[in-house]
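Q: Convert this sequence to C-alpha cells.
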Amino acid sequence: MATINTNPGAMIALQNLNQTNKDLQQVQQRINTGLAISSAKDNGGVFAIAQSMRADVAGYKAVNQSLDLAQSTTDVALAAGEAISDLLVEMKEKALASADTSLDTASRNALNEDFTALRDQIGTIVANAEFNGTNLIQNGATDITALANADGSNTITIGAEDLSLTGTTITLSAASVINTTTTANAAVSAIETSLDNLNSALARLGTGSKSLEIHSTFVNKLSDALERGIGNLVDADLAKESARLQSLQVKQQLGTQALSIANSAPSSILSYFR
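A:
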C-alpha cells in the first residue's frame, strides 16, 4: 500500500543506522581508552572484580613502600653493626698489646689513646645509625614493623638490637681503658664477649633484612600478576576493534544511503497523479 503518513522502510533504515552509530561510538570509546570495560554499565560483574583487584594493587604499593622503609632502616643498622664489629676487632688487638707485661708506660699510653678513640667511635656510629628518624640499634630502640599484605592484617617485625656501649650486646664500658695490664685484660675479655653477642645480633638483623627483601620481591610479582589479570578482564583487543571500526564505518555509510533511499520512496506516489 502506498502512503505518505508512514514510511516503514525509512523507520527500519533509521533503526539500523542508530544501532550502527551506537556500535561505532562504543568501538571508538574502546580505542580511545584502551578498555573494553570502562564502567559498570559495560559489564557490572567484571567491572566490580576489576575494581577489587585495583584496590589490592594500590594496597600492595603501600606494602612495598613499608617494606622498603623497613629494609632501609635495617640495612643502616646492619652496616653500623658491621662497622662496630671491625672496631671491636681492632680494639682487641690494642688491648692484647697493652696486656703485655714487658711493654713500657709510654707505649701502653699510646695504645690506650688509640683504644679510647676507637671506643668513642662506637658511640658515634650508634648515634648516627638512623634512617628516616628511626634508629634500630640505640639504647631504648623499639622494634620496627612492616606491612605484609594489602589489608594490613599481616606484618613483618624486625627486632631492635642495643649496640650501645655498656648495653646488652656490647658489654664493654663507655669508660673502658687499657692503661694497665689489669684493665687491658679486662677489656680483652669484655671485647670477646661483645663480639660473640654482636655476631648473634648481626645474624638476626641480616635474617630480618633478607626476609624483607624476599617478601618485597614476592609482593612485586603478586602486584604484577594482579595488573595482568586486570588487563585480561577489561583491556580491549585493539587489533580487533580497529577492524570492527572500519567495518562499522562502511556500514554507517551504507545505512545513511539506505535511509536516504527510503526517505525518497514516498515521492514516487506523485507519479500516480501525472
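The CA atoms of residues 17 and 256 lie 7 Å apart.
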